[in-house]
Amino acid sequence: MLSVLALTSVVLLGIASQCTAVTVYTSWEKHAQVGSDVRLSCSFFSWQWTSPEVSFSWSYRADGSKESPTIFHYTNGAPYIANKGPFRDRLEFVGNPNRRDGSILIRNVDFSDNGTFTCDAKNPPDIGGHPSSVRLLVYEKVPVQAGVITGAIIGVVLGLLILVVAIYYLMRFLVARRVFSLSMSRHGKKGKGKEGSQQKQKPKVPLVFISF
Questions:
Q1: Angle CA(86)–CA(120)–CA(104) in degrees, nearest 5?
Q2: Which residues pair with 137 in a beta bridge?
Q3: For the chain, does the N or the C end have fewer beta carbons within 10 angstroms?
């Protein structure tokens, strides 16, 4: 009996811990062209309704650095941008906290912006959970990703298959229509032939003239 109660309590504690955890989502990797603006998306899942005290926090760790200073914080309905650091004049909050969106926009990115951006979210009373990170890679010219090429190839192949199937059924329809037309014309000729033969076989009634 005690073992059953202990197991039940463990399960309930596990469920309670899951219900008070926030799951944060970001992209795995983001590519951008030098001089462009890049949006870093961040959202979260919580079992609670979106709290008016919802908060977002972004930190940044440059490639080769061990420091991760906070560059942005949103709390009590207001955004706060760090007044020092490489993004103080180039960062903009473009999220919607009511929709659990804590995205930021980095303007005029440069090669020195390469690094890892980490987003953390709190939705009181859900304050547990783990932050999520996205790595920014800035290029002179953004390379075409393998997934885009694969998707384009699959799209072309599917388009060709649909075209081949459409042509196949169109040809079948045209052939069936042609066969039907020939069949109707042959039956029509046979019918006319029978009527002609019947007309030929009709006996001629001789005309009899009676003279007085």
A1: 45
A2: 31
A3: C
* Amino acid found at 188: G
Look at residues 136, 140, 144, 63 and name the one whose alpha carbon lies nearest to residue 104: 136
Beta bridge partners of 91: 106
Distances (CA, A) of 39 to 10, 135, 192: 42, 12, 80
What is the bridge-based pairing of β-strands 128-130 and 21-26? parallel
Return d(Cα 178, Cα 173) in angstroms, integer.
Answer: 9
Tens-place pLDDT, residues 105-115:
999 999 999 99
Q: Which residues of 147-173 are buried (b: 16+ CB within 10 A; e: fewer)?
A: eeeeeeeeeeeeeeeeeeeeeeeeeee
Domain boundaries, the chain: 21-142, 144-182
Q: How far apart are the first and last CA of the chain?
A: 138
Polymer length of the chain: 212
Q: Assign domain 21-142 to its CATH architecture.
A: Sandwich (2.60)
The torsion region of residue 199 among left (phi > 0), alpha (psi -120 to 50) and beta comes to alpha
**pLDDT tens digits for 35-56?**
999 999 999 999 999 999 999 9
